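Title: Prediction job returns without error message
Component: structure pipeline
Severity: low
Priority: P3
Assignee: unassigned

Description:
Job completed but the reporter wants confirmation the result is attached to the right record. Sequence as submitted:
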Amino acid sequence: MVNIHAHGGSLFRVDPVTGDARRTDLGGVRLPTTNGTLVHGRTLYAPRMNDLAVLRLDPTGHNARLARTATEARFETPCATALHCNRLHLPNSRFPQPPQPEQPYNAVALSLAL
């Protein structure tokens, strides 16, 4: 779970049994606009305002380090990440533009390998 208000944007690991949340050490990386993250294996994909932070989690999930930052000219505030057919799909939320009936929305597909 990401709390965009805690420490400039922090990741928390929640115990599914107790509901207790513990902050994950991201080595200084902030997730200030992250909404929909994806964990695949030990890799965390976290969309931010104009990029995708790719973090490698340790086996416990209590620590993570930035592996790379993926940028894409087609990003217009990616807001979530989904995996389908070995590709990451990130819908563009187009924030902060006000919604208009004629406003087109789309998603960007990236190779899982990045």
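Comment from assignee: result matches the submitted record. The beta strands are 2-3, 10-14, 21-23, 38-40, 43-47, 52-57, 64-70, 82-84, 87-91, 107-111.
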